[in-house]
Input
Amino acid sequence: MNTAHLVFYKKIISLLSQPYPFYYQGKNNWVIAGLFFVMTILFNYLIEPFEVYKPEHKMDYFWISVIHACSPVLTIGLLALTKTTLKTEENWNVRREILLILVFLLCVGVMQFLIRDIIYNNPNNWSWRYFYEEIRNTLLIGSLFAILFISLNYNRLNFKYNRNAQSVKSLGKKANTIINSIVTIETQVQSDVFTLNLNNFLFAKADGNYVELYLSEKRVSKIVKRITLKELEAILITYPNIFKTHRSYLVNLYHVQKVVGNAQGYKLKLSNYDEKVPVSRNKVQAFDAVVKKF
Output
């Protein structure tokens, strides 16, 4: 492998490892399903991407296009029943997005084959030839749209959040300036009540009915307490510098040293802590508004 090929290979690997937003949860699934349904109907009916042999049709070609459009909707509906974890969402990247779409297209191709008897009068509907053709055609067209969408969407989001992140100022110089910084935290275990010094508090991370609290003194330490992130947030709600950046993270903004943008939103560099804490896309606007007040 020559140098040019090696550089190209490294760029591809780097791109595939880049963070990418995870859309497939909640009402997003139904929005995506609706878009797929409309786009598939219009694409099949108006463009006719593959050979159309009308004598074997059992119905008008428009209704055939509608039935074909139901396959991706049903597949997305099955995906909507799948519960995703916070870890999946946080670690989602371009590579995983592409693999998921390929699996999705494969499932759609199989469905397109299974519904052939509904729409075509063809004695060979159940042949390996049409099984191969339905999957091939679905992967061919679907991959083209997927690559185009992923590339455009990744560049759009990455540019947007990188640009916005550059305008966010560092708040690290305000650390250790919180008045009345000692807060008593009551947990679900009465004997485990503890005090939290907010001047040393970096962030909290949800772990079911527990939270991991990261504290910065001479070095960063972690303690685990039996309290939910929602309960901790309610206790600290009077402190404007304590902000929920993500559904599993509560951050002391006074310890933010640097903000970096990516396609998923922001990543925060905190005082004396090597790993970055996420700000999800749906929290970016609120995060920007809060930071501007300091």
